[in-house]
Amino acid sequence: MDLTLYVWRQSGPGAKGRLEEIEARGITADMSFLEMLDVVNEGLIKTGREPIAFDHDCREGICGMCSQVINGVPHGPQEKTTVCQLHMRRFKDGDRIYIEPWRARAFPVIKDLIVDRSALDRIVQAGGYVSVHTGGVPDANAVLVPKADADTAMDAAECIGCGACVAACPNGSAMLFTAAKVAHLAALPQGRAEAARRVCMMTEAMLKEGFGSCSNHYECQAACPKGIKVKFIAKLNREFIKAQFSKKSE
Amino acid sequence: MIKSSVGRKMVMAVTGAGMIFFILVHLLGNLTLYSGPAAINAYAYALHRFGPLIWSFRLVMFCMFMLHLFFGIQLTLENRAARPQSYAVRNERATTFAGKSMVWSGLLIGAFLLFHLLQFTLQVINPGIAAASHPDPIGRPDVFTMVVLSFQRLSYALLYIVSLTALALHLYHSIQSSFQTLGLNGERTFPVVTVTGRVAAIMIFLGYAAFPIVIYMGFLR
Amino acid sequence: MILDGKCPSGPLPEMWDRHRKEMKLVNPANKRKYRIAVVGTGLAGASAAATLGELGYNVDAFFYQDSARRAHSIAAQGGINAAKNYPNDGDSVARLFHDTIKGGDFRAREANVYRLAMVSNSIIDQCVAQGVPFARDYAGYLDNRSFGGAQVSRTFYARGQTGQQLLIGAYSALSRQVKAGTVALHPRSEMLDLVIVNGEAKGITVRNMVNGRLECHTADAVCLCTGGYTNVFYLSTNAMGSNVTAAYRAYKKGAFFANPCYTQIHPTCIPVTGDHQSKLTLMSESLRNDGRVWVPRIKGDRRSPGEIPEDERDYYLERKYPAFGNLAPRDISSRAAKEVCDESRGVGPGGRGVYLDFADSINRLGIDKVRERYGNLFDMYEKIADENAYRQPMRIYPAPHYAMGGLWVDYNLQSNIPGLFVLGEANFSDHGANRLGASALMQGLADGYYIIPYTIAGYLAGTKPGVVGTGHPEFIRSVEECEGTIRKLLSINGKRTANEFHRELGGLMWEHVGMARSHEGLTSVLKRIPELRAEFWENVRVPGGEADLNQELEKAGRVADFLEFAELMARDALHREESCGGHFRVEYQMPDGEAKRDDEQFCYVAGWEFKGAGTAPELHKEPLKFDNVPLAVRSYK
């Protein structure tokens, strides 16, 4: 199939960008979206043009590196699917496809479709961990974790940190990302001790990084390639309220 | 707490919930209109006998409103700033028109509220029919006549219906939103809260919009 | 030269404890004077950086991704082994040790493997304490499942995302140290050179991938945790960015490369669909717990799987290896799949595939139970192959997956260059000629959490901190060299892209240095690789500039190293005239097609020393002694 791409091109962090029209020819249905871009890039290189810069790595939907807004939807039209797992059989001959980077103040564009997502790392650094030393921990079965709690923790922990929630949110909020981490650790006895402190530190970091706040549009949930649910945002809010009445939030 | 955006949203949710509560009480009180002049005038008269109480209630309402307004605008501005460059193409899959227009419906409600207070509380818009200066046969302010005469004019009736639409839109998003913000949502309650909130918004709209419609159509005079 | 693994003497179970007691320590107050460079933030790198930072060292962590959480350890699906014996099914440290040695076809160092088995239990404890949501039963106890190459259930797992959860655990420990100020992160940084001063590793040169600047970083010790080199096959289950560059540049600076020919071809991957394909996707080995592998009995049978009656199916793994059945080790399963496909009994387009059938399990357990266990894998399969594996069998085929070979290290994980430590998949030490499932995660974390913190102190205690600055001539020379290579790549302006060279190289390697290797094939490929390399340096086209984010330049640099490394790998495969584990030489097989080891001549680790471009590398041997597990023919029948 042949497609017309409109790709965001931006030469550097401060530079002015624009959408460039690029033809993609000879694309087959069993290619992944990124393989389609590979083919396009090979063509661009051969004709002396600069290839499209985009982030990608594992190409099996788990590393969270790929980050493209395709026709106005982060990660494209297929639900619960990262760009790298999106296949061209979802498109048809003659389609026009708009490809843009994640857009948020906290995610400045580095080049073309590549953005700087280190703000998410800094949210985790603010408290997204259990403060445990290496060594000196009890036997793994010493503290029992009911299956339901372990499952809840795992549901939240599936987050791959891609930032699609931020890209989708009309407010550029990182609430789903932050909530997933807060909820993951709050569901486990190992994470409870620091729960109050964690939620305060992480939400504060979120604001400081320039993310907006959640006004419950739930676009994040619709965009999340791992199906992280907004119930975890409610959980974060509960944890936040609890923290206000806890001495442990200091 | 209010340093955090999560905390500020909670203030909005609580103040919003307080105002929703007021809206419900106000609607119940207004229903006395259907029982004729005697009922509503008695109701209004009775309320005013609680002098200091009503003023402290008004003060609380005013504070709630101002907090809600202030944080609403502040958070909206912050949120706008968080996405300086918009998408060339955006295809939303979950949000609603109501959700996206919260700040506008909110401001409209604010403007309407001002008008509503001037009209029926301070009664300065049409001094000719002001209840305070026109007592009913037994000497109480004639609220019934004031309201009925107002809504017999198409312009006022329409103005109210438009403003109530803004209120309905605001509530359509905000009832479920406040539950979520206050952490009162779980996976199972989520759809229930959303639907109930939306139905409640529509019911409130119908309840209030009925007054101008019924009066304008001449069913209540 | 005879390489000395520096294993402590005495009985295996006591070795590590005694060694720890005897090693020197660094005074707590002195630790912050030492700077350690950790390259790579996978399980080994992230756990090492976090633990070393926590101990008080100044750690710099470098990685090419944008976040430390994205290293390819994250893609490991199935699980992590430990000798906890929670199911009470006969497991022990000794058994895990024995299984790993045997699984590696007697080509690993006993002392290292025993230590690995010993610390395996602490890893699970540590991860649980970090909040890793391992699968649990209703009573709240940890759940286990079985994996290839073992007859006990010792694998801990977190749905199909065990690697992700373990890495996030290590990443959060790392994040905590970043907050504490002991670890500095260097994202989007690619190591291009190891800097050696007076024979000791004293720093690295990295390219800042955002602005193209070459940066020097001094260190009192360098830890390479840069993963494996299976992308030499172009198509593999590795991430697109996984590369050999850091390890290969260290090799060129004098570090010995050990057993490069030991590569693991994983049996359960989604088959190749076409030339455009950029990577292969693994379906977790855990699927073989409940899936049955089969092909039609009749050659060229093109009927759909449902139309093939039971007695016309060949469940070849169950037939050939009744004791282990579908859970036979990876090298054996892969080779068996290749065999049946070579007999024209393969399925799917191109005939390069075998069925992995869940029909029996769905009948036995119900579709919900199967969905609960493997739902995400079935979904992934459907996204890629566009087939529903609940209704028809999956098609799978082996794909390059893991590198057992790597830089040579001694018992302390130190290479032959003092101050250069190599951890995780990047070293060669623990898996011999074949790695068992769920052991890679175990080794990465063992190295990072429990081994390097002790052994690096043993080295640093005898080293003066901070003696070399970035102004040292060796750093200046290193930057000039890297700059020269980059400018050369950009100036060629030829006709073929780096990717095209990579694909061609991968094709050659898969054909001749893949699942079955022969003297003839290896000789031909050793002639072809230098030709391809020469063409690369005359005809590659790298667009863009050096002072910019330039993904083609990154790719070209990696391909250039693969083009050299491939030759080393083929050379090692040619020299090893035996079959063992993942290394199968067609000349050396039993009458029934099983691998034929030659313990008389090849019971050693092959460590290759770089002798300059155009000169053959020199082979050094580390003899392997098996005092605890008797050398035996590896049988899974």
**What strand line-up does the widest sheet of chain C have?**
5-2-1-9-17
SS strand fraction of chain C: 5-15%
Of all chain pairs, the largest interface belongs to: A-C, 78 and 82 residues
The CATH architecture term of the largest domain in chain A is Orthogonal Bundle
The assigned structural class of chain A equals alpha+beta
- State mean pLDDT of chain A (0 to 100 scale): 96
Number of folding domains of chain A? 2
Global shape of chain C:
globular
Question: Architecture of the domain at 267-398 in chain C, according to CATH?
Answer: Alpha-Beta Complex
Oligomer: heterotrimer
Spans of chain A of at least 5 consecutive residues whose pLDDT stays below 50 are none
Q: What is the general shape of chain A?
A: elongated
Number of helices of chain C: 17
The CATH class name of the domain at 267-398 in chain C reads Alpha Beta
How many E-type strands of chain C?
Answer: 19
Write out the strand line-up for the largest beta sheet of chain A, numbering strands in chain order: 2-1-5-3-4
| Beta-strand proportion of chain A | 5-15%
Structural class of chain C: alpha+beta
User: Can you tell me the CATH class of the largest domain in chain A?
Assistant: Mainly Alpha
What name does the CATH topology of the domain at 267-398 in chain C carry? Flavocytochrome C3, Chain A, domain 1
